[in-house]
Design goal:
The complex is a heterodimer of chains A (about 130) and B (about 120). Chain A is of the alpha+beta class. Chain A has a 4-stranded antiparallel beta sheet with strand order 2-5-1-6. Chain A has 3 helices and 6 strands. In chain A, β3 and β4 form a beta hairpin. The two termini of chain A are about 20 Å apart. With about 120 residues, chain B is α+β, with helices and mostly antiparallel strands. Chain B has a single domain, classed as Alpha-Beta Plaits (2-Layer Sandwich), CATH 3.30.70.1060. In chain B, strands 2-5-1-6 form a 4-stranded antiparallel beta sheet. The longest helix of chain B has 20 residues. Chain B is globular. The chains are: A alpha+beta (about 130), B alpha+beta (about 120). At the A-B interface, β1, β2, β3, β4 and β5 of A face β1, α2, β2, β3 and β4 of B.
């Protein structure tokens, strides 16, 4: 079963992250690298990506003629995807355990960030939606 | 340049989608398949994935002892990721054009477009 583990944050969370000390950032990156390596070694790794800053995010709708209409204004409460992991595991419990590890990644002041990780099962086929 | 196009909606929005007729949903799926095919043919396709419904979503935090704490209660206003496309395109405008096409095919739902982080993008 494939699951996506999503790190989400508000604009203010990203602003806070940008202010971390170099040492804290390096510790976090080192954790993320070791974490990915471990996921690969245990055979559950599918993919991982980090996204650019929310300040670069755009919202697109189609105009009357199908042309893209771009908007870059989001409410303060908007949750932005910071990055994700896709894993292939035996059970949801295994996905939650791995998400808990990601949640404990080191944050500012070398303390565990304890960030919430949203866990969602990905569709293997459209039939999974039960429509 | 790689971009991710994110389609999100609230739980209410997802229920509205599911309330459509089978034919309407099939027609929508057919257009999305067509868009995927076009992206493959133009060499811009990287990946696409749909997610299961918000009712299965969990938020997990790690406790000090490393045990996962799960929560499945979300605010009504919470936007859930429904699915995404990853495209490799020559510029942002092309990513916006593809997002516009997906939006037009999908009841004008807004599509969030984000570039993947690169060393340059993250070390502003």
């Amino acid at each position: 079963m494939k699951y996506i583990l999503m790190m989400m944050g508000k604009k203010s969370d990203f602003d806070g992250y940008a202010k971390w000390s170099k040492e804290d950032l390096q510790a976090n990156v080192a954790f993320m690298r070791a974490f990915s390596k471990e996921l690969k070694e245990t055979g559950v790794f599918v993919s991982t990506e980090g996204l650019g800053w929310p300040s670069e995010a755009k919202l697109i709708r189609a105009g009357k003629d199908g042309e893209p209409v771009t908007d870059g204004v989001f409410p303060e409460s908007k949750e932005f995807l910071a990055g994700y992991w896709i894993i292939d595991v035996e059970s949801p419990e295994q996905a939650y355990k791995i998400a808990a590890r990601a949640s404990r990644a080191p944050g500012a002041g070398a303390k565990a960030a304890n960030m919430p990780i949203e866990v969602r099962r990905v569709l293997s086929s459209h039939a999974d939606l039960g429509l | 340049m790689k971009y991710i196009l994110l389609m999100s909606s609230t739980a209410t929005g997802v229920q509205g989608y599911h309330a459509q007729s089978k034919q309407d949903i099939e027609a929508h799926m057919a257009i999305l398949h067509r868009i995927n095919k076009d992206l493959s043919e133009s060499g811009e396709f990287v990946a696409t994935q749909g997610l299961t419904g918000p009712q299965e979503a969990k938020v997990v935090r790690g406790e000090k002892n490393g045990l996962p704490v799960t929560d499945g209660i979300f605010p009504e206003s919470k936007e859930f990721l429904l699915g995404y496309w990853i495209v490799d395109v020559s510029n942002a405008e092309r990513a916006y054009a593809i997002a516009g096409r997906i939006s037009a095919a999908s009841m004008n739902i807004p599509i969030e477009v984000r570039q993947f982080a690169t060393y340059e993008a993250t070390s502003r």
